[in-house]
Design brief:
This protein has 15 helices and five strands. Helix 3 packs across helix 4, helix 7 packs antiparallel against helix 8 and helix 10 runs antiparallel to helix 11. A hairpin with a 2-residue loop joins strand 4 and strand 5. By secondary structure, the protein is mostly helical. The two termini are 43 Å apart. It has a three-stranded antiparallel beta sheet with strand order 3-5-4.
Length: 364
């Protein structure tokens, strides 16, 4: 049996976490999050942000695990049209569904993030029915050299105990004076160090980040595009996680996570503002050019589903297929969407919105 290379500590660790550099970075990150939260509230239907931005987070988080897809493949996956969906896009869509599952559980469990929820997320993400690791032998290796860089807890009872302690720490607000952003950094490191699942720990850990920020009230909905920063600084991310284990370098790790929050809050803010501006412009154009067609539900559909189809309009607007097809064809004729065909089915693309994601997110 492998010997764990790091003793999972009780949280919070017995060191000064609120150093002068941390407090300065904390102020910047909290300002950025507050601005994002306020601007996001101006979007008339929060489901638009949850669906579209969760998909962007899913895309980037999956890239960290070398699951790479394009924006086009990603949105096509939602259409569920035969022959359009790549295996990578299916994986990314599963991540999005897992994030939404976690958010749904948060709303229906008195604001608690439980181990049961994390196991449900794992089962959905990996399409299997087990839970925390019970078999020893897990070791994390350097992708290039194959060298073992970290051995997490091996004993099933130790994993269970560590995750139970982490669950308590996540949900014990009244007993913690820590700023939620510092606490998020501690939670993420602890989860990744326990490494409770046989696979998918990185993606589940990143879902846990945004769920915790929502639980703490720093976001209304889980829309922070946090994985973008980690993707672009992957070497630093893994180096700093390991430095905590080997050197107790908590300050450097917390500073990294605060920078990630501030950076990605600004990027997400640009996306939210772009969506808000496009919706306002689209609303005016619809009212001016197609007044008999305009409804807020139709506008919401075009932004909740950047790639839409007749079935989505039928469901969202409660109209017949014939009426939905007429609406979409009129929108295409007037330049609101671009019409495409796959086999015997049509789909319609909000090209301006897709271009926004490409421009702001640097997506393919």
């Amino acid at each position: 049996m492998l010997k764990p290379s790091y003793a999972i500590p009780a949280l919070p660790p017995p060191v000064n976490l609120e150093t002068v550099p941390v407090l300065k970075a904390l102020a910047k990150a909290n300002r950025a999050l507050a601005e994002l939260k306020g601007r996001a509230a101006t979007i008339p239907n929060q489901g638009i942000l949850i669906d579209t931005l969760a998909l962007q987070e899913a895309k980037t988080s999956s890239e960290i695990e070398n699951i790479v897809t394009t924006q086009d493949e990603l949105f096509q996956a939602d259409l569920q049209l035969e022959g359009l969906v790549s295996p990578a896009a299916k994986e990314v869509a599963l991540y999005r569904d897992a994030l939404k599952l976690g958010y749904d559980r948060l709303l229906t469990s008195d604001g608690l993030i439980t181990n049961r929820t994390l196991i449900e997320i794992f089962r959905l993400l990996k399409r299997r029915d087990d839970g925390f690791r019970v078999t020893p032998g897990t070791a994390l290796k350097n992708d290039t050299t194959g060298e073992v860089v970290y051995v997490p807890p091996q004993d099933a009872r130790e994993i269970e105990a560590a995750m139970s302690a982490l669950e308590r720490f996540i949900n014990e607000d009244e007993r913690s004076s820590l700023d939620p952003l510092i606490k998020m950094a501690l939670i993420h490191h602890q989860f990744e160090s326990i490494h409770p699942f046989s696979d998918g720990n990185g993606r589940i850990g990143r879902i846990l980040n945004v769920l915790y920020l929502t639980r703490a009230g720093l976001l209304e909905t889980p829309i922070l595009y946090l994985s973008r920063h980690i993707t672009r600084t992957k070497a630093d991310y893994y180096r700093l996680i390991q430095a905590v284990r080997t050197k107790g370098a908590w300050e450097d790790w917390i500073l990294y996570m605060l920078e990630a929050v501030a950076n990605t809050a600004q990027i997400t803010l640009a996306l939210v503002e772009g969506i808000r501006t496009q919706m306002a412009s689209g609303k005016k154009r619809l009212r001016d050019d197609l007044p008999n067609l305009y409804s807020q539900d139709l506008l919401n559909n075009l932004f909740r589903h950047p790639y839409t189809r007749i079935d989505f309009v039928v469901k969202d607007l409660k109209v017949s297929r014939q009426t939905a097809a007429k609406y979409l064809d009129l929108l295409a004729e007037n330049g609101f969407v671009a019409k495409h065909r796959s086999g015997r089915s049509n789909y319609y693309v909000n090209t301006d919105l897709v271009r926004l994601f490409l421009d702001v997110s640097g997506g393919r």
